Amino acid sequence: MECTVHWVADAGMAMMATTGSGHVITMDGAPEGGGRNLAPRPMETLLAGAGGCTAYDVVLILKRGRHQVTGCSVQMSAERATTDPKVFTKLNLHFVVTGKGLPETAVARAVTLSHEKYCSATAMLGRTAEITTSHEVREAA
Which SUPFAM superfamilies does UniProt cross-reference here (predicted)? Predict the structure, then answer.
């Protein structure tokens, strides 16, 4: 896996990342740090990546179990250390999974498997942060 990050000098503290798969991600800093608030902060991007990683796992696990999952979102909140490096110290991930006839036990199992076995992003973040999870199941219309 590769990624190249370039500072966009004429845009304050904006950074452009080009991923190995050819996609571009823009990041920016807070105005008080010289940024212009034109894009997510790098740590917000890290948090979003972790959410995407674990949601991917949950959907894949449910689909492999032949469950009719039609939606999955992860509402995340994070706390950071007050001194540098300001790593994440607490993360809460609340999964909202929608489907037809989804058993609550299957959703709980998928969330647990992602958290304990498959999600490399949350496994890394778990080295500095206490991670808690919760979930709810909604019936699809």
Answer: OsmC-like (SSF82784)
CATH number, position 81: 3.30.300.20
Cβ-contact 16, 3 below 8 angstroms? no
- Residues 59 and 9 grouped into a single domain: no
Q: 0.90 exceeded by the pTM?
A: yes
For 37-62, the pLDDT digits (tens) are 999 999 999 999 999 999 999 999 99
Q: Residue 115: which of 95, 100, 96 has the closest Cα?
A: 95
Query: Residue 10 — very low, low, confident or very high, per pLDDT cuts 50/70/90?
Result: confident
